[in-house]
Amino acid sequence: MLPSLRKGSGMFVLKSLVAAVAAAVVLLPSVPALAASPISLTSGFYVNPNSLPATWARNNSGDPRAARIQSSIGSKPIARWFGNDANIGTTVANYAGAADGQDKLPVLVAYNIPGRDICAGHSGGGAGSPSAYRTWISSFAAGIGTKPAVVIIEPDALNGLDCMTQAQRDERLGMLLYATQMLQQKAPNTYAYLDAGNAGWTAASTIANRLGQAGIANIRGFSVNVSNFYWTSESITYANSVNSYLGTAKPFVIDTSRNGKGHGDGWCNPPGRKLGVTAQTGGGAELLLWVKTPGVSDGPCGTAPSTPAGQFNPDLATRLIDGT
Fold first, then answer.
1. Is 59 labeled as ligand-binding?
2. Which domain of life is it from (predicted)?
3. Is 228 among the annotated ligand-binding positions?
4. Three-class SS state of 184
5. When you count CB atoms within 10 A of the terminal residue's CB, does the N or C end of the chain come out lower?
6. Which positions ≥6 away from 210 have C-beta within 8 Å?
7. Dihedral, CA atoms, 137, 140, 144, 150, nearest 10 degrees?
8. Which of residues 279 and 9 earns the better pLDDT score?
9. What is the pTM assigned to this prediction?
10. Over 60: is that where the pLDDT of 18 sits?
């Protein structure tokens, strides 16, 4: 559970913040100053009533899978992913505002970097140019404003440098640096985490160097295992290795949405995977989160050969519930 704390009453807020910091599972982190901890400013994680699994269950109430999907997935705190949207500032403000109105902590994923998913291609897209991305991420951060939030910045973007020319790499690193600056400046009550891939992808030394170039000093820390399946213990080991190369350790978060049986065979809708532990503080990281939405396809592959990336598939969802 997250600490329960309402905004107001200075001494109570101060004491609660001190207790929250003392309890955080981090290794001497270097973090920028915040107006306040978003964890301490809220009373639990936000459950989006309009997540893809919740919406599917609501719209298919007669389906025998609906109740199980709602109970096991739709009723849980899951990150919401945000892509290209001409009104992104308003969209984000409304979402963060809905969570704030319930005194809950929302988890948002900024996923709009140009050349998105450049290596695999299943989730391609993103902003049309670096300037368009800068406008988008600036509006994204402004939409959060002073409301408490957690943000995962551009999953796979740093790992995707492997599939780019040097000029493209420099351009992308510049965009990510700008993203960290905007979140630092415009969203003071947000914990933002640059994505660092997973334990089976890029060497810890390489990803640490990229995190530094992308501005990790401006934000809270980094995320691992987003949309992947590695055991939490494997992700902790990897994150600690990344921290050893960063020089000054940073807090990290782990995506546990589908790691209830570990990695298995492949990354794209592999069989035999299972839901992991639901969102919580601690657990070997600063936060364990459901970043990937369980039941949403990785692409037309694996156990969902006809389901495009980003589309909810109830069969994928029930497989994750049952671990089959």
1. no
2. Bacteria
3. yes
4. helix
5. N
6. 158, 161, 173, 202
7. -70
8. 279
9. 0.90
10. no
Of these residues, 100, 117, 195, 298, which one is catalytic?
A: 298
Cβ atoms of 321 and 261 within 8 Å: the answer is no
Is 156 one of the catalytic residues?
yes
Tell me whether residue 56 is annotated as binding: no
**Catalytic hit among 156, 170, 265, 322:** 156
Q: What is the dihedral of CA 133, 135, 136, 141, to 10 degrees?
A: 120
Q: What is the CA radius of gyration of the chain?
A: 18
d(CA 101, CA 46): 10
CATH number, domain 40-322: 3.20.20.40
Look at phi and psi of residue 269 and say left if phi exceeds 0, alpha if psi is from -120 to 50, else beta: left
Neighbour-count burial for 77-100, b at 16+ CB within 10 Å, e otherwise: bbbbbbbeeeebbebbbebbebbb
CA-to-CA distance for 256 and 77, rounded, in angstroms?
Answer: 12
pLDDT at 119: 93
Chain mean pLDDT for the chain: 91
Q: What is the pLDDT of residues 223-272, one digit of tens each?
A: 999 999 999 999 999 999 999 999 899 999 999 999 999 998 899 999 99
Mean pLDDT of the 59-76 span: 98
Structure-token pair, residue 74:
């739709």
Question: Virtual CA dihedral for 184, 186, 191, 192, nearest 10 degrees?
Answer: -60
315 catalytic residue (yes or no): no
